[in-house]
Amino acid sequence: MKRLVSVVALVFALCPISRAEGPREGSPLDHLPADTRQLTSWGERPDFRHDGKKILFLSKVFGDVYEYEIATGLITPCTDHFTHYGFTRALYLSNGDVLLSGPISPFDRTNKEDRQRARSASYLSVLDKSFTKPPVPLNEHCDEGPAVSRHRLRIAWTHGHQDQISTAELVYENGVPKLTGKRLVLKVADFPENERPHRWIETQNFVPPDDTRLTLTAYEIGDTANSEAFVLDLASGELKNVSRSPDHYEEVEGTFPDGKHTLVERAEHRGNHWPLIDAWKLSLDGSGHAERLTFFTDFKGYKGGEPVVSDDGRFLVFTLGKSGMEAGQGFGLFLKELGE
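Predicted structure:
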């Protein structure tokens, strides 16, 4: 009998039973792990400067752009010196200038449908790193996320009805940026039928170090709640599903500098097309191996999203999100140390 009890105890120790209780009450802000600290109580859509010393972010959806200095906590406004209608993205280019995406005409900020139209009808521009000049329009429509190279002046962006992705090189003529070599690299119809998204795709990052591949998300595959992470080979056009998890929602975010992993927003969808998510590290080798990095969804009504990794791979910055909010809406920036 004692031997039987010992065996049973060993089985329970090696195979712990998942807890039956639901999410915890309270806030993840009161239970931050030792490797994570809160930087701000507002802001969203962060991006690391390439030297890792500053973080670019938006104040809110259709808000202004700000720069946060990690060492001092100093926040610098970047876009309050010219007239605009707010921004949906702001990303550091390899030369330190900033790629902006945002609407170029008035809209009703109080109307949900008009806000969505403005998000889908944003346009790209380049802001000088001095933050003293108005941005230069690139005259390219961008529906949701653009992508920038860490190493060269190359960008990719989603357009059309969020169903096409193009790439181009950024050149400066007499100090004025413009796009050259524009190329349509992907559209929804290019996906294999069994992995085809219902409507939307979105680009995210060039894969270092050679930037010949691009990470992207395909949403609602087969008209289900399944969204998957893909890698596109820009030379051959080959598409590779790197998450392969039909029971989970995965949306690609920042790519690790080793070129072997990417960050994703991930959650078991259980039929919900837009579940609350946390940040995970996903292998790009197609194995589907993923490691959870944030645990904000352990608390009822919260999520940890929009994760990006520093160019040295040592730090993660992400945002606090809440249920029932507009897509991408964040409530503060958080810095997590990943180690060497």
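Summary: The helical segments are 2-14, 112-120.
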